[in-house]
Amino acid sequence: MKRFLLGLYVLLCAHSAYAQCGKVPAQGESIAGLLGATAFIDEMVARHQFDRADLSQLLAQTCMKQSILNAMSRPAEAKPWSAYRPLFVEPKHIAQGVRFWAAHDAALARAEAQYGVPASMIVAIIGVETFYGRNTGSFRVMDALSTLAFGSPQRAAYFRDELEQYLLLAREAGFAPLSIKGSYAGAMGIGQFMPSSYRNFGVDFDGDGQRDLWDNPDDAIGSVANYFHGKGWIPGAPVVTPATAVAEPGKGLANHGWSFRMPLKYWSRVGVAANDATPAEAEAMLLELAGANGPEYWLAYQNFYVITRYNHSFHYAMAVWQLSRELEAERAASIVPQTTP
Question: pTM of this prediction?
Answer without folding.
Answer: 0.88
